[in-house]
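Researcher: Please generate the 3D structure of the following complex. Treat every line as part of one assembly.
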Amino acid sequence: MEDVKAYIESGILELYVLGEISAQEKAGVEDMALKHPAVRAELNEIERSMELYAAEQSIEPSEALRNRVLNSLLTNLSDDHTFPARKATEEQAKVIALPAAKPNSFYKYAFAACLALLLVSVAALINIYSKLQTSNEQLLAMSAQNQRFSKTVSYQQDQLDMFRDTAYHMIRMKGQAKSPASSMMVAWSPAAKKVMIDMAGAKLPVNDSAHQYQLWAIVAGKPVDLGVFDMKPDSTEAMKTMKSVDIPQAFAVTLEPHGGSVNPTLSNMMVLGQF
Amino acid sequence: MSKKRQISLSEEELVQLLRRREKVAAEALYDMYSASLYGVILRIVNEETLAEDILQETFVKIWQSFSSYSADKGRLFTWMVNIARNLSIDKIRSKDFRNQNKNQDIENNVNLIDENRSAVYKPELLGIKELVNTLRPEQKSILELVYFKGYTHVEAADELGIPLGTVKTRLRMAILELRKHFN
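Model: Done. Output below.
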């Protein structure tokens, strides 16, 4: 028991009671206390004396502290008793799943629609443009036709006026030796100083391209050129205005080389009419 | 001792009630030990409001971790006072507390504690003085260092400039002196 006595007297038991030793030493002391009742008894004495030491210098805490401390203990206590199986119920935050973000196809469709509309519009525009072109052409053609008509009408009106106008003298030129079947009317107005020939009513052979007919007026015994004209089978001209002349004695038509001649070729005189 | 104990039980009874977490156990625990524990805490931290907070903290810890106490390893009070001492020493070693109380000489501190205490708690003054006087100065200072300042015996040896063995012996002598006093 010398060892035990030395162990007790080493002071380690005091340190043990004061909690001032390592965990390893602590286990050693507890082991010794189990094996040796003397160690156990010594420990108990030390503990008791330290407890009495504390009791000797005990100080009453304030009266209010008792309730404060007991409340903090018993709050836990009541929790423990009232809700023995209480588990930390997690306050599960309400999670509302956001609707899965739809692929935003609206703009795709809108874009496609716009594109389609654009294509249709362009097609329609081209179509309408071509129709407009056609219409314009038709309109131009019609207006041209209209102009022709009005021209024709006014021309015929002119002709009618001419025939009604008493100032016009109608001279019938008759066929000569070269072409006895030919005839032609020439109208002359001394007031208007106008000479016109009746192409529609003329009876003259069709001339070739190398020759042209030439109208002459005989003024004071001399032939005066009044211009050239052609006889064509498809001619639509009714009356043709020729150069003017002052006081003609007679009118005649000769067949001359293309462009006319300065003096008439008398052998080629087709028709002649005296005033 | 002017303790007005409302409930007093034997240690075995109290331990059993504490294990069952009875309400009466909490009350008995407080009534039986609050003054002793508060005395130790106040001597360590030397500040009443702080000491009360630590006392509350101590009881909460005792209550909550009571399952780790085993009667085989020692008395209930030893276990409890070590909880109180550790909480108190942690507090005075924390930065905040140190900043408030710039390093003070150990001896001065002891005197200061005594002066402060005597100023406020006159009824206890006599008993403490008497107790302290039974200890020799070197026994008193080793007890102060280890018990109230939380020095390890290695630190205490350094502080006092004495061998480790002497620290242990002195501490033992101081406690033997206390034992004699109480017997």
